[in-house]
Amino acid sequence: MPVVNPQNASDGCLSAVDGQQNLEHLLKTRGLLRDTLSSLIHHRSAKIGGLLVGLVILLAVFAPLIALEGPLVGNVVDRNQAPSLQHLLGTDPLGRDVLSRLAWGSRVTLAAAMTAAALAVLLGSVAGLSIGFRGGWLDILTMRLMEIVMSVPALLLALAIMAMRGQGLWNGVMALVLVGIPYYARIARSAVLATKNQDYVLASRACGAGDARILWRHIVPNTFGPILTYSALGVASSITDIAAMGFLGLGVRPPAPEVGAMLSYGATWMFGAPWIMISAGVTILLAVLGLNFFSDALRDALDPSLRCR
Amino acid sequence: MASYLARRVLAAVPTLIVLSLLIFALLRLIPGDPALAHFGSKYPPEGALQLAREWMGVGRPWHIQYADWVSGMLRGDLGTSLQDGLPIAARLAQRWPATVELSTITVLLAVFVGTAVGIVSALKRGSAIDLMVSGFTFSGVAVPSYFLGLILLWFFGTIVHIFPAGGRIAADSDLQRITNFLIVDSVLTRNWPALLDVLRHLILPAVAGWWWPTAVTARMTRSCLLDVMNQDYIRSARAKGLRETVVVMRHALKNAFIPVLTVIGLDMASVLGGSVMVETIFAWPGIGRWLVEAYTMRDYTVVQSMTLMFAVWLVFVMLVVDLLVPLIDPRCRLD
User: Contacts of residue A157 in chain B, CB cutoff 8 Å?
Assistant: First the structure.
């Protein structure tokens, strides 16, 4: 899961007038959640990203309404039809409606990717928090180990794990969680190290606060920003990886729909019915692109120092 | 300089040991019986399961299995494929050059195009070109290599027939194989038509895996060059009255390129990770496609040895990059 985002903050900094308004706004509102939400709403990347991801999420959520007959029903008489009003994205060689399959398929892919990312974020941050806070030789040893794990492409490790566990969506999710943990652990750890020796933490300790209180009140809130920003990218790369597994035939078993499996099915019918492959691929692309935009916006929104300079 | 060299080479040894332990453990800690998997959905006949276990050596203690595996690797014996019972090393000789050739060409392409594009967008900061480059680098992370590969295959298969759809070389080619690096072979035997054919086969799979590393390299080059252009020595160079091209080429680029070099390792990792997909799509007879076969057949000896081979290749590339840095940056030679 090498989620390195080559895009740096470009449109996060607002013009002077906007900045002034934003500053007033910031002074009025209280609390991280409301503050973040309100600045997200006004962020251009957040709008674009939200729109793109929203499209895919809507498709997945309303799958039962979009595909009234379900993803498996097809009429062979209608096979290989190009997109039309009746079948917006055309039909496949078995006469099944591509949009219906895509809607159900994105449900599976999105759910799997989000589960994988959420579990990896949770386990990774807990690991990063605890080893970063404790420090010492355990910290050095663990991080060195994790760095070495990260030197091997995550998809390769995940696929190797799957080869041992056997095919299946759940095995794929587990493999992605396992290989994703080091990435989040590293981020959480560096956030901990950055705050651990800040004056306000030392002050709190001087007042007699215990480890638990310091972690919970001072350190954990400071890790939210980087972790959330990174998890948006994590979901994006999980989508790519889950779809890759589906593409290689290691994910769900046919005829169950899944976007990656649809892509590989569409690839075999590339020249007769290219719309299958293109719609599946574009769905992945929209989701991943949208999440990248969204992650950019999140980083700006969660870091007040970036927002109103 | 010599001590720097020695230290870097020695540092790679523990990394390799840990990697081999990790890959070994990863495949052992996960429940699953390769012997049972070998029989697929069929129920194995009486005694056959025990026999298969013995032959695969999965019943023995872990430390002995590990020692066997590693000492075998060091002697050049990579084990036996569980699918066909053939030694892995024999097939590796043909598959390894295919993957190394493709991945090296992809990374070189990415580094050249990425730095060129990054330099242009840094020098023309804020212009339309810069904006286009930003769009290019941003979409680079969103387009998975396998989707790009499929689109390329579709486009060049239906609309413009310039490139062949898959494989490394035309089936009726008269190229004499020496090293199995087909570019090297065709140059060695001065077989120019074959060289052209090999390059035409290389282009589509290389471009499929090329976007992400190019985007990362371009991004890195742009930000590093912008950083360097604000340095005092650039102002001094301009104050001396040097022409802008000299300032950029001689003073800025050399310094901006040092951080970019370190991205090469990251590029190689992404290309290798994508090779599983790209080689499958373009019927490229390399390690990636072999691994996919091994995944579906649950051939754990191949998975284990080939994942380690990828790791070794990555460590090697990073080592080469580390050794290149002091050639450009004299500050590294001092310590």
Answer: 26, 307
